[in-house]
Here is the input.
Amino acid sequence: MKYKTHMIITLARPSLHLSLLYYLLGLTILLLPLSVNSDTQTKIEAKSTKPPLTAVHEYVLDNGLKVLVKQDKRAPIAVMYIWYKVGSSYEQEGLTGVSHVLEHMMFKGTEKHPTGEFNRILAENGAQDNAFTSQDYTAYYEVIASDRLEVAMELEADRMRGVLLPPEEFKKELEVVKEERRWRTEDKPTSMTYEQFQANAFINSPYRTPVIGWMTDLDNMTVKDARAWYKKWYTPNNATLVVAGDVEPEAIHQMVQKHFASIKKTVLPELKVQKEVKQIGLRSIQVKVPAKVPYLIMGYKSPNLLTAKEKWEPYALEVLASVLDGGSSARLVKELVRKQEIATSVSASHSGYGRLPDLFTFSGIPAKNSSVSNLRKAIEVEIDKLKTQLVSNEELSRVKAQTIASEVYERDSIKHQASVMGFLESVGLGHRLMDEYVDNIAAITAQQIQAVAKKYLIEDGLTVAELIPQAIDPQKVHKPAPALRH
Here is the structure.
C-alpha cells in the first residue's frame, strides 16, 4: 500500500535511520513497494495472492485513546507506535514546521525522566526507537523484546502530557532543525525544486507548506509556540496506540489501561477545512539554483480516497502509476530511458491516501543530449497513449500481480503491519482498509485506467516545475550530512 511520503524522519542513529528509511521508503514519510522480478510477477495470479487476515483487536479508553493490537508470534518481539493526528497540514501561516520541531523536543525530558533518560532506558532494554513527522501525523515507535514492552509503554505515557520543553534545550534543538533544513532542502537542488513546486501547485491547501517548515518561520519560532502546540494536540483523544507482535491482546489492553487511563482528555481545537480552490489553467515555474543537471516535476490534481466521489478512482490512479513506473519493464523506463534515451531517470506516482487531495506526479532528469522540454513532451506522449489506447490484459495482469505481490511481501514485516494500521487511522481511513486493498486493486479494469487518465491528467490541473542549473561555486565547502540526534 503506497501511502504518504512527505515526511521528516528524525535520525537517532545512522543504522536505525537506514533501517527505518528503507522501511518507510519501502512504504510512500518523507512508501514504494519492494521490487519483484518481472518473470515472477507474471506468474502470480492476483486473485490468489490476497494475504491471510489476522484479527485486529480494537479498544477505546474512556479518555478517547484508540488502541489497536495485532498478534504475530513468529518472533519474541513487539512493535509499538503512537500516532498523533497532527502534522504540517494542521499548521497555520507563520508557524510552519512546529510539528516537526515538537517531535524533536519530545526526547528532551519530563519531570520523571530528565533529558537523555528516554533513550538511555530504551537502549538498556535493547530497544530501537525513532520518530517521524508528515503532513498529516506525527508518530513515535519502539521495537523491543515483547517481555520488555511495558518499559516503552510507560515512557510513552509519561511524555504524552509530561514533556517539560526547557527553553535552553529548545534553543539548541531549533538550531539542529535549521541545519537539518539546510542539509535536506537548501543544499539539494531537486529538493529545493520540489518545495517550490508544492508551494505553487496548491493555493489554499496546507499541503503547500514543507513539513520541515519555512526557514523564516523557524527563525521566529519560540518555545511558547511549541508549548501551545503540544498542549493542543498531544492528548489521548487525538492519538492511536498500535501494538503488533508476540503479545496477548487483552494483556496489552490492561497494560494500556494501567499507563494511559489516568491521562485526561482535552477539548481539541476546531480544525477549519482548507479546501483547495479549483485550478483553472496550467501553472509553470522555474527554479534557478546551483546544480549539475536540470530536473523536471509535473503534478496533476487528483482525488484521494477520503474525497473521491467514485471510490475506485484512487485505486485506478495507483494502478496507472504502476503501468508507467512499476519496475524495469514499465513504460517510462522502457520507452524514455532505454529505447529513446531521453531521460536518465523518470518516475510516476500517485498520492491518494492522505487526509486531503493531492497530486499525480511525474519527475525526471533529462539525458545529457536531451532537455527538460523533450522529456516533458515524451511524458505527455505516454499520457496520451493511456487516454487513447486501453492497457492490454497481459500488461494489466502483470502490473496488478506486481502491486499485490509487493503488498504481500511487505506484510511479512510486523513493523509494516503496525505502521499501516496507525497511518490509516491517523488520516481518517480506518485500519480495515488494509484488508480491502488487494481486492480493490484486483478489481481495476483497463477502462477505469483510461477513464482516470482522461479525467485527471489534463493541462488545466497541471503544475510544472523546471530546475535550471546555475553555476556551482567551486570554492563552496560542502558540509557533510549532520549526525542528527534526539
The two ends are 29 Å apart (CA to CA). Residues 167-186 form the longest helix (20 residues). Confidence is low (pLDDT under 50) at residues 11-52. The chain has 17 helices and twelve strands.
